[in-house]
Amino acid sequence: MRLQFSTTQLYGRDQELAELQRIYDLVAEEGTSRLVLLDGYSGNGKTSLVSHFGRSILQTRHQQQQNDSSPRSDLLQLEDSTASFALPQSTTTRFIKGKFDEHNRKPYAAFVGAFRDLIASLKRHCHEECDRIAAIQKAVNDHKQSSVLFDIIPNLKDLMEEEDDDAAKKTASEGSHFFRRSSIEKNNNNNTISATTKQSTGSSRMLQRIHELHFQFKAFVRAACAGGPVILFCDDLQWADQSSLELLKALASDGSSRNLLIIGAYRGHEIEQNENHPLSWCINHLKNEEYLPAERLYELELSDFPLGDLNLFVADSLELAPEKTMSLSQVVWSKTHGNVFYSKQFLQELVDKELITFDFAYFRWKWETELIAGATDLSENVVEMVAARIRQLPPSVIQILKIASCLWYSFDVTVLEYIVVHSEERIKERRRSLKRLATATPFLSEQGVQVKDQSKVMQGLQAAKEQGLLDQTGANGYKFGHDRIREAVYSIIEEGEERDALHIVIGELLWYMFHDSTKSQQWMLFSAVDQLNKVSHRFQKSDAGQGLELAKVNLEAAECAMGVSAFLPAIDYLKSGLQFLGDNPWEDVANYRFCLTMHSKLAALEASVGHTEESEKLIQGTLQHAECFEDKLPLYVTKVESLGVQGKLKEALTLAYEVLEGLGEAFPQNTTGKRFQRAVQSDTSLTQKLLSKHNDATILALPLLQDSRKQYALKIMNLLVDSAFHLGEMMQLFLIINRMIRISLEYGLGDVSGVAFALYGFSLNSPNGDRMENYRYGKLALLLQERLAAKEWECRVLVFVYVLLNHWVEPLQKSLNPLLAAHSAGMQHGDIDYAVQASGAFLTLYWYSGNDLNFGVDEMRRFSAQMKDYKQEKALAIYLPLFQCLLNMTGPASDAALLCGEAISQAEYEEKKFTNSTIMSYQMQLSYYFNDMERAEELSTSLQKVSKSFNAHYLFVARQFFFGLISLRVAMDSKGKKRRRNIAVANRVIKEMEQWTQRGGINCLQKLLILNAEQKALNFLRQGRFCSKKEAVESVREAFDISIATAIRSGFPNDAALACERAAAFLDRCNQDAYWVQSYASRAVEYYKLWGANAKVDQLTAIYSRGLSTDLSSTPVHAPFRRSSVTYDHEKVLCAEVQVRQKDSSEKSSVRISNQFSSEVVLKAARGLLKGSGSLRDGSESVTYRDETTARSMDELGSGWLEPFQQSKLDERKS
After folding, report:
1. Which of 890, 920, 850 is nearest to 1099 (CA)?
2. Pick the residue with more confidence: 803 or 1125?
3. Residue 964: enclosing H or E segment and its boundaries?
4. According to the per-residue pLDDT averaged within each range, which of 104-118, 621-635, 911-925, 938-952 is highest?
5. 442 cis-preceded (ω within 30 degrees of 0)
6. What was the pLDDT predicted at 689?
7. Following DSSP, what letter does each residue of 294-345 receive, concatenated?
8. pLDDT tens-digit profile of 402-427?
9. What confidence score (pLDDT) does residue 1156 get?
10. Environment class of residue 238 by beta-carbon count within 10 Å: exposed (0-12), middle (13-18) or buried (19+)?
11. Orc1-like AAA ATPase domain location, by residue (predicted)?
12. Cβ proximity of 108 and 99 under 8 Å
């Protein structure tokens, strides 16, 4: 007779339940994310507590919805598919659960189980969860081309919308057979394995794939939480593999996550015994506030029952009043110390031994407390107690349970039936000969399971369920009632031949099932290899053939694990495989290729996870056994990458040059002096000569690179780009770029050819260089990237083109959306460093582009949070000063001119204000904007000493612009040597601006015109008494008007506002009519409003408090920045253009003003300036340009670019 224990009642956990409820309320009400770590001994009710909490949340939500909308009661459904609960009509909360297993450590096991059940439930209730499903579909479709989610959660593809037939077939094929793809090629003659020469798994690429997986999984989880809170319960974290713990950390620390509550349960006493336990390391990281804010992490410790709560449990189990069971509860507590699971098993044992009996006369349980307390045959060990009860079952049921205990905590009935039916004869055979592995034997898939055999298995499972050993999960699944029950079943398998034979047979059958297309599932391969590795001692010293066969199986599992970025499990599989090859695997010549593959892959994996010492040992050992230079190449690539990651950049360059020399690409050994410069010039000439034989069309039509040696050469050179750049070795960098171009032209296009051409455009950058030629190679790089479809390099190509090249020729605003696309591509494909660079470049260009700063602040918050998530400390150091600058400008700020506040603390500012060039740059700009000229002058002087080397970024243009502005303004208020020095700086800046504008720098035009107007103002103030004051003032006003009109027409209200402000200041200083001063000040205020610079609006309003007019109805305004789709056509502008609106004047045809201020004259004057005169003048009709783009840009301005200002002047004169 069995006791019936309550599955719905929870005892002694009111405090813990209340705390979980409070945390959940925070998640639901604030839309935040939280992590709860639940610590407790095995069997004390951690799983029951969280499951009860999940049920109570869903039931509460259901009751609320019934009160609000009275939904049909038949829609309420609490599902338990591996303890996953869902309420279909509630789109607000989902409770899902996954569990890690001690004996089968499949990568991401808990996440796979939890989200597999979520997807299945959403598909069943698609009508009620359409919003959540739509969000998931969008998130997955955004990354579908490279998504690994389909491999981890196979049924995810069932939720996706129908694709075209070809895509659907491809997805189905790749989804079900992904884990069979490998680089192993079997030679039918000698049965050896050859490694492919070209490897796609360098250590840096592996790191990218980890980031790629985390990024895609976080996007998927955010989408799953879009319809309301999701409670994710990960049970038994102490058995999680390190890849799963890394994913847990990524989800928990995701700053963009909303409506997510993660609960992780673990046995703290087990990890305390091992300070190097992966979970201990994970928890320590999570407790670091820089990684996860303290308010988002909660730790709960669950203790065993006190006597009072245990007595309530015993009383309910025996259906008696608590006062009648206290004496029994005291005995139970003395044995079990309040452990819930142990108490249940102890009570059942008392019933089995008839120490507790049921009195049918009185319909109640009865016992003798003295007999129970004095009994000596009661087990002190709960596992032994359960095992004793299991031994009382029929042999057939015991055998089924034994096989189930070797499989998984929860299992599918069809898989168990298949193994049970096919294992009987095989187990007998293996017990006779354990040294022969049968993985090479063809498997007969038609050997199905007969109906009678199915019935026997189901009867056995049902019998175990009646004994409380198993629980049913869904229509076709079972799970053990507790880990201790599974442990008890496993303990009755006799150690030695019986246990080893069982593992071997299960491993063989699972391996067969994995390779049978009708039954294949990912977990089968991992479980098969785990089963076979448990008996590795049986094969390590057996014949070489069996060891090689087991090593192959481990390599197959390692490659599957690598396919889902589970690199730590892959390392374990490779190490196990190498153990099967014996102590001297290189001695067998027939196994040479296989050993080379195993060691090369293992070295790359060890390097990718930061195990540099282990990787170095493997590399050195393998290099000694490698037979030829080609076989050493994968190892050299791994070593160069590893040195770069460690910051040993010079060592990486030295080693790479040695390898490249062996590949026929020798580089000069001495990289200094004039001889090296001549070598670079000669190499550049060779490249230019080769390029002269091609046009864009022929380059795009080049064949793909097939030469494996040149493939490695390109790969190594690409690795050197970052090293040379960070070392400041620009000549070496240009030499590397030239070689990459020549290989692409002579041997064919490689994956990184797009990167090479983008960098080549950058290498042509010089003060007197042809910007159109740079721009051309940037466009060509984008088209090559489109053709090659090398997604992992897309982010870098976009960054190089739109940060270094595009802004010199196209409007600055056209670089914004492509940089967002670069960020998205980098995050999707794991190129985190360049993705962060893309977001930072976007924010920098956004600051100068004239778009609404308030949007920039929002984006800055989002991107800075992401930088913190990914520990991009260097990027934060660069972009937090910009963040503070945006905050100061948008206001309010206690001191807008001082670069400290929310983003940069006062202490950090004081420490770095004269050492961090980024802080100095933005502080200089704020100081100028807010009239702190003493500080602006000091910072400008310091920055001019360090701002001469890297001049391809638009940031360099902006800095030069402020150098000129500050110098001109200081010159206005100084005399003598100081004035002459500042005038010289201003003249140098203006000359540079003229050169840039002549060569296509259309984003420099309005800045050049503002500097020219300021220069005219300075000249007037210096020589005003020797000239006609009225004519001179009018000339200065005209110069400012031209700069204002140019800035507005070009879409830069920020520069227009600055020009208006400076015009007002000049006229005020010259004691001109207050009307003109107020007119320009009013325009400045309006343009600053348009830019979102609220602090400047407040400042000017205070300065020009009287007579300030803000009626600019005739002023053209440009549209605010809008994000475009991150997918765009490279051949159609290559980005979504930021639109610029212009309001047409209704009196366009009737407005006629004096010829002195006609737009035609101004246009000629601007062209004359571009020609190089250095001052505004009328110029002649025959103005020529150095490039067609500048001429076209000027012509596009046309005669209408000043019409709003013409109308304004006409109105002013009339008044």
Report:
1. 890
2. 803
3. helix 954-972
4. 621-635
5. no
6. 93
7. GGGEEEEEEPPPPHHHHHHHHHHHHTS-HHHHHHHHHHHHHHHTT-HHHHHH
8. 999 988 888 888 888 888 888 877 77
9. 29
10. buried
11. 9-74, 90-263
12. no
Tokens of 288: 């670091």
Q: What is the DSSP letter of 647?
A: T
Residues 782 and 643: their CA atoms lie apart, in Å, by 30
| Sign of the alpha-carbon dihedral angle for 9, 14, 20, 25 | positive
What single-letter DSSP state applies at residue 6? -
Q: Which two tokens stand for residue 764?
A: 């042509």
Residues in CB range of 698: below 8 A, 6 or more apart: none
At 1104, the amino acid letter reads Y
| 230-235 and 260-266 beta bridge pairing | parallel
Q: Which residue, chain included where needed, has tokens 């042809």?
A: 770
CA nearest to 229, candidates 18, 379, 31:
31
Phi-psi region of 647 (alpha: psi -120 to 50; beta: other; left: phi over 0): left
CA gap 1208, 1215 in Å, rounded = 11
Q: Is pLDDT larger for residue 89 or for residue 406?
A: 406
98 phi and psi angles, rounded to 5 deg: -140, 160
Residue 34 has what DSSP assignment? E
pLDDT over 90, % of the chain: 34
| CA pair distance 1173, 1161, nearest whole angstrom | 15
- The dihedral sign for the CA sequence 1153, 1159, 1160, 1163: positive
The Cα 697–Cα 1156 span in angstroms is 49
| DSSP strand pairing (364-367 vs 356-359) | antiparallel
Dihedral pair phi/psi, residue 176, rounded to 5°: -85, -25
Q: Measure the N-to-C terminal CA separation of the chain; round to a whole number of Å.
A: 106
> Which residues touch 590 (CB under 8 Å, ≥6 apart)?
190, 192
Residue 997 near residue 1004, CB atoms below 8 Å: yes
Single-letter amino acid code for the residue at 1165? A
DSSP category for residue 1070: T
pTM summary value: 0.73
CA distance 303 to 299: 13
Which of the 8 DSSP states describes residue 264? E
Task: Report pLDDT for 1042.
Answer: 93
Q: What is the residue whose two structure tokens read 């500050």?
A: 966
SS3 of residue 95 by DSSP: strand
Tell me the average pLDDT across 619-630.
92
Phi-psi region of 435 (alpha: psi -120 to 50; beta: other; left: phi over 0): alpha
Q: What is the DSSP string of 364-421?
A: EEEE-HHHHHH-SSS-S-HHHHHHHHHTTS-HHHHHHHHHHHHH-SEEEHHHHHHHHH
CA distance 642 to 203: 7
DSSP 40-67: E-TTSSHHHHHHHHHHHHHHHHHHHHHH
CA 25 to CA 816: how far, in whole Å?
39
**Residue 424: other Cβ atoms inside 10 A:** 11
Region 1131-1148: what's the mean pLDDT? Answer: 29
The two most distant CA atoms of the chain are separated, in Å, by: 127
Structure tokens at 320: 């008696």
H or E stretch including 39?
strand 33-40
Alpha-carbon separation of residue 217 from 123, 149, 150, 242 (angstroms): 19, 7, 11, 16
User: Three-state secondary structure along 737-796?
Assistant: HHHHHHHHHHHCECCCHHHHHHHHHHHCCCCCCCHHHHHHHHHHHHHHHHHHCCHHHHHH
Beta bridge partners of 479: 410, 471
Q: Backbone phi, then psi, for 443, in 5-degree steps? A: -105, 135
Q: Which of 241, 215, 245, 220 is nearest to 230 (CA)?
A: 220
**1155: which 2 tokens?**
């010829």
CB atoms within 10 A of CB 691: 16
DSSP bridge pairs for 425: none
